[in-house]
Amino acid sequence: MEITKDKEFIIVMKVGPFCGYGLDEIIQIKTNEENKVGVFYFGYGGAFCHPGKVRRFVDQAQKQGAATIKLLFITTKSDFSSALLKSEFLSENGYDWVNLHPEVLLVGSKFAFVAKGLKEVNYDLDLSQYRSMLGQRKGKYLNEHLRFRADKSCAQYEPRDCPPAPARIEYESELVFPYCVLVK
Question: In sequence order, which residues have a C-beta less than 8 Å from that of residue 37 and are 6 or more positions away?
């Protein structure tokens, strides 16, 4: 795959069935959400990709000339459940909370990426050519980072000479301001 400027800085996330919803249902919900609200919110939990860190990643990417950050999805069959209820509020800073638009459905999440242009795609991304830019595993290439419980990462294209580590990308979108929010 040729790396274009719009794929130099990416966020990769594993997605699958979540809190009782199948992946096809989730994709349809997010597509409808964007049609009604103008963006969609893709929720998640865990310690990876805290909103403040995501915004720092976006700032770094923009300073290096990136016009867009792609949000790429690798599908997994793993089914995740959470005790967290449906989110009703969002915040960019953790202090000032506003109501989520009534058309937004987020369950089982503490955070959400803000994106648009969700589309089905079908290509391989060589994870061995992207270096993680956040967290305790900062600097690891994605083929070493996205293992076990690590299911998402902010990364930059940094080519190297090594065996390829392809991952099938089945959905992609574009991150948009405010990029990532806290939800409750």
Answer: 101, 103, 104
Q: pTM score, two decimals? A: 0.90
pLDDT tens for 91-101 read 999 999 999 99
Q: How far apart are CA 41 and CA 176, in angstroms?
A: 10
Q: How many domains does the chain have?
A: 1
Q: How far apart are CA 19 and CA 25, in angstroms?
A: 11
What is the residue range of 102's domain? 5-183
Q: Check whether 79 has a pLDDT greater than 90.
A: no
Looking at per-residue pLDDT, the higher value among 20 and 137 belongs to 20
Q: How is 24-45 classified by DSSP, letter by letter?
A: HHHHHHHHHHHHHHSSEEEEE-
